């Protein structure tokens, strides 16, 4: 009975232990997966055998039983040692790293995301040295050297081509119109005079029209139909004593006045139809052709290294006046435009030579800015030169160190003249250099320049 009770208790204990182990194994499959549950089952089986042998009665004095028990114990221990150990969990170095979520079986059709190892820590960032802020003076000098300095080789080639074309044109006029006393052609323009050249692409050819002073006189612009003091008329005089035909220029008279339109039309026909430009271009290694549709007497020259636009201007010099055959647009004929270009260049260079000033640098920067900006392009040339001359009368410090101050001051003065709509000529205050601008153009220029006075660097940005 005692043995029965003891065996029953042992079976109950075994049954209870087995139930616990079964429950543990069932749950282990859910928690640890198939491979983890297998490992736990092998270890549990070995432990269970050890417990059974420890609680079962021993057959003392039976050496074979003891030997069998010892062999089974070693087998169990070997089984435990041979059981593969589960991989160690990666220890979290930082509590801010999230824990790995529990494993779940893959869903069919779902791509398995590869485990990404944590990126190595980035090296400490070393802030780069911020660029030094340039002053307006430095920006102006940099802009001048980078964008406004014409390469010497390019300028030399442009001048060489222009002189060769001038020589060919002069020879043609003397052969074609020997009766017309044209003077010697000369080159002019910013590339030669250094006030406004941005590129070596534009040359002026000045063709003197030599008049007999006894047969011609000047009529001031105020007395003309346009009432503009900048335009003059050239009247044929003493027709009763010197009738038409006495002067070779009488063939260009319209209504008793030397017509700039008629002279330009005659020269335009010669440039387009009479001169063999392909042959001349072949001699010079370039392609030359006149611009047919332009009201100006213009030639386009294309060379491998440079492209030129050459404009021919008939010019009359009388009574210390320089008049160009450049009439205003419209139906008005016979008008000649008074040019101050030669006086402008002479005066600016004279002032710069007297105080080692930077007026020419300032003018080239201003002309470059205005020429490259569609809103300001009509301000380039004479208006800016007259503005600098006006300012030179009140500001004496034009040293290169004061270039930024003078540049800022020129902008402010220009805004003031645009507000009134009047920029008087430096050489004749009756002439308004803004007379050819519309009110809308003046407003657009004034608004843009008024904004630029607060931040002049905006005008120097490349477009």
UniProtKB/TrEMBL annotation:
Domain Mab-21-like HhH/H2TH-like: 359-445
Membrane topology: Single-pass membrane protein
Annotated spans, Disordered: 81-130
InterPro entries given in the database record: Mab-21_HhH/H2TH-like, MAB21L/cGLR, MID49/MID51, MID51-like_C
Predominant location: mitochondrion
Keyword presence, Transmembrane helix: yes
Domain Mitochondrial dynamics protein MID51-like C-terminal: 155-344
GO cellular component, one term: mitochondrial outer membrane
Keyword Membrane: yes
Keywords of the record: Membrane, Mitochondrion, Mitochondrion outer membrane, Transmembrane, Transmembrane helix
Subcellular location: Mitochondrion outer membrane
Transmembrane segments: none
GO biological process, one term: positive regulation of mitochondrial fission
Official protein name in the record: MID49 protein
Species this chain originates from: Pterocles burchelli
Lineage, opening ranks: Eukaryota, Metazoa, Chordata, Craniata, Vertebrata
